[in-house]
Design a protein that fits this description.
The complex is a heterodimer. Chain A is built from twelve helices and no strands. By secondary structure, chain A is mainly α. Chain A folds into two domains: about 60 residues, no CATH class; about 170 residues, MetI-like fold (Orthogonal Bundle). The longest helix of chain A is centred in the first third of the chain and has 35 residues. The relative contact order of chain A is 0.13. By secondary structure, chain B is of the alpha+beta class. Chain B is about 20% helix and about 35% strand. Chain B contains nine helices and 20 strands. In chain B, strand 17 and strand 18 form a beta hairpin. In chain B, helix 2 crosses helix 3, helix 2 packs parallel to helix 4 and helix 3 packs across helix 4.
């Protein structure tokens, strides 16, 4: 055997099949991760891609040619802008109300032992455990039986209700690791209960509150089932899209979807950057 | 608490080192009257009466669960007593919240605000008081950081400093409001041994410099002995003895104190004669020893105590000098420890006595006592103490 042949045999011994196996053995984690990311991202990539399509008919399911038309006229389809605005308004209001109430409930449930605490814990958890379709149907029954007209207010009530659960769970996770001595230290140094809350407690649980709010916002803006039961004649974005599928989804829906996705990614990146800077400062 | 008449007066002990303008050293900084704290049915603190003098370094020493931290937390205002009275400089503060008491606390594990810089941590108390110009605030913080030897650390975050440095920041933060009393809850517990020794000296220096009353909670008897002017040795909800370190070591009054501070040999005995200055006590092995009458304190049954390093060993044929308390026994174990040799001696009735002998002369002559050898133990009656049962077990009154 020549020296060169020996070297090549040492570098990659075995049959080609064995070599591929070995390569996979070394890179399995990478391959797996890559496949998972593709699996998760493919629908989003398709959505973004098709926001630049100029479809032949009303349905945006087949690629025809590149166009900025939908991006330049995002609110061209009738009723889309109203739906987006209604969804945003409901998401904002329900997020703010649910975050404030949920934070206070979370604080109360972690900090104090009181009668009915176990029951409160259970009740808070129920909306998360109950199927949405059941929640929606029973809310509709409730509103009808008390003679309440279904409109944006009933949607809000429904969204605040299920959002509170998620906020409470998130806040409680954050508070679980909270060192109460920090609050004692603040009071020891002359801070009243109120000042202690704003100067110590709030800044420390703020990341948790922010995470809870982001979760609530995204849950609200994409909720369809419960909203559909409680909406009356109000049309939110998910309801608009659902309705549009029957006559053909306009390209603008992809545009709105892309914008929402972009905003979400931006928010996550921003909060990560802020936290990193915070740690480094 | 049991008041022992005739016990050495702790009043003469330290505090003379203070650089306070006021010549009065008997001012009371903190007074606890019949303080009880119950958690459910369990009394964590059980009728404590206590006076901490202005400017002294006072320690609450005891094993975990003895109520020392609860006592400290009640003084700080973090726990409300179930009953009793807490006075701060003559003023009743029992029901005041922490932010309305002129005391500050150095917490176990420091409790620095993780979201604030070192500067803002130290400035926190000053900012709550308000009414300070920015420049003055800045100079007060800088001055505090210089006191704890951390100048230039202003911009760092608590996560960027070491445990020892965090300790100093906690101290600076607690001292900046110039409290009447500083409470320290096992502040050195999380530090390694070397750093702890260094911080002990540092704490003494700082206390000396600022002249503030320190109340220090620890379970480390050596630490308490080294730093304190006076120590209250606590056990199950109350203190067994309150005195300066020397008195606690030389004249422990209860079995618990004798065992918690250092090593003691305790031998049960019956008081034969309550004379002055010495009472005679017959031990279980029939030997009669002399004990200072004050230590016996009128009891009929006592345990006679002596520290291992106070005992001298004599060969079986040697005659111990007269005037010493003498026991006879057999060497059961001898461990050479370099500085000293530790012997275990078994007396005639089977009790075991520890003896530490400095390796000064005997090693030179090459004659350490060997196991099996018969010896005499001798020690001065003045080095003898007597303890009763722990206060917890006795139905002792005030």
């Amino acid at each position: 055997m020549t020296t060169a042949a020996l070297e090549s045999a040492v570098r990659s011994p075995g049959t080609p099949v064995q070599r591929i196996r070995r390569w996979l053995g070394h890179n399995a984690l990478f391959v797996y991760t890559f496949a998972a990311i593709v699996y998760l991202m493919l629908p989003i990539v398709v959505m973004i891609l098709f926001s630049f399509n100029r479809p032949a008919g009303k349905s945006n399911f087949a690629w025809r040619e590149f166009s900025l038309n939908a991006w330049l006229n995002p609110f061209a389809p009738l009723g889309l802008s109203d739906a987006v605005i209604a969804s945003l308004r409901i998401a904002f209001v329900s997020t703010i109300v649910a975050t404030i109430l949920g934070t206070l409930i979370g604080l109360g449930l972690t900090r104090y032992v009181f009668r009915g605490r176990a029951a409160t814990n259970l009740i808070i958890f129920l909306p998360m455990a109950t199927p949405e379709i059941v929640l929606g149907a029973s809310l509709l029954t409730l509103f009808v039986s008390i003679g309440m007209a279904r409109n944006e207010l009933t949607i809000l009530i429904a969204h605040i209700m299920f959002n509170i659960s998620y906020v409470v769970v998130t806040i409680r996770a954050r508070l679980a690791g909270f060192d109460r001595r920090l609050e004692e230290a603040a009071m020891d140094l002359g801070a009243t209960e109120m000042v202690t809350f704003w100067k110590v407690t709030f800044p420390l649980i703020f990341p948790g509150i922010l995470a809870a709010a982001m979760l609530a916002f995204s849950l609200s803006i994409d909720d369809f089932v419960i909203t559909n039961f409680t909406a009356g004649s109000t049309v939110t974005l998910p309801m608009y899209i659902y309705g549009a599928t029957r006559i053909g989804v306009p390209v603008q829906v992809n545009v709105i979807g892309t914008i929402i996705f972009g905003t979400a990614v931006g928010a996550v990146v921003l909060s990560t950057l802020l936290q990193r800077r915070d740690r480094a400062a | 608490m049991v008041a022992i008449p005739g016990a050495p007066d702790p009043g003469h002990c330290p505090s003379g080192t203070r650089s306070d303008e006021s010549p009065v050293t008997t001012e009371v900084a903190v007074r606890l009257v019949d303080v009880v704290k119950k958690f459910g049915d369990v009394a964590a603190v059980d009728r404590i009466n206590l006076e901490v003098r202005d400017g002294e370094f006072f320690s609450l020493l005891g094993p975990s669960g003895c109520g020392k931290t609860t006592t400290l937390r009640m003084i700080g205002g973090f726990e409300e007593p179930t009953s009793g009275l807490i006075e701060l400089q003559g003023k009743d503060v029992t029901w005041l919240p922490p932010y309305r008491r002129n005391v500050n606390t150095v917490f176990q594990n420091y409790a620095l605000f993780p979201h604030l810089t070192i500067f803002e941590n130290v400035a926190f108390g000053l900012r709550r008081k308000g009414g300070l110009k920015d420049a003055e605030l800045r100079s007060r913080v800088t001055e505090m950081l210089r006191l704890v030897e951390l100048p230039g650390f202003e911009k760092r975050k608590p996560t960027q400093i070491s445990g020892g440095q965090a300790q100093r920041v906690a101290l600076a933060r607690a001292l900046i409001n110039r409290p009447a009393v500083l409470l320290l809850d096992e502040p050195l517990g999380a530090l390694d041994l070397k750093l702890r020794k260094q911080m002990q000296l540092e704490l003494k220096r700082i206390q000396h410099e600022v002249g503030v009353t320190f109340i220090y909670v620890t379970h480390d008897q050596e630490e308490a002995m080294m730093m304190s002017d006076r120590i209250a040795v606590m056990n199950s909800g109350h203190y067994e003895q309150l005195a300066d370190p020397e008195t606690l070591y030389e004249r422990p009054q209860t079995r618990f104190v004798a065992g918690f501070l250092g090593v003691s040999n305790l031998l049960a005995g019956i008081v034969l004669e309550k004379g002055t200055p010495y009472a005679s006590v017959r031990l279980a092995d029939e030997a009669v020893v002399r004990v200072p009458a004050a230590a016996v304190n009128g009891r009929a049954d006592v345990e006679v105590g002596v520290r291992p390093e106070k005992i001298r060993l004599f060969g079986a044929d040697a005659e111990p000098p007269s005037g010493l308390n003498v026991l006879s026994g057999t060497v059961r174990d001898a461990s050479y420890l370099g500085v000293s040799t530790q012997y275990i001696i078994e007396t005639k009735n089977g009790s075991r006595v520890s003896v530490y002998e400095q390796n000064v002369e005997r090693t030179i002559h090459g004659s350490l006592h060997r196991p099996g050898e018969a010896v005499h133990l001798g020690w001065s009656p003045d080095h003898t103490f007597a303890v009763g049962p722990s206060v917890a077990d006795a139905s002792a009154g005030e």
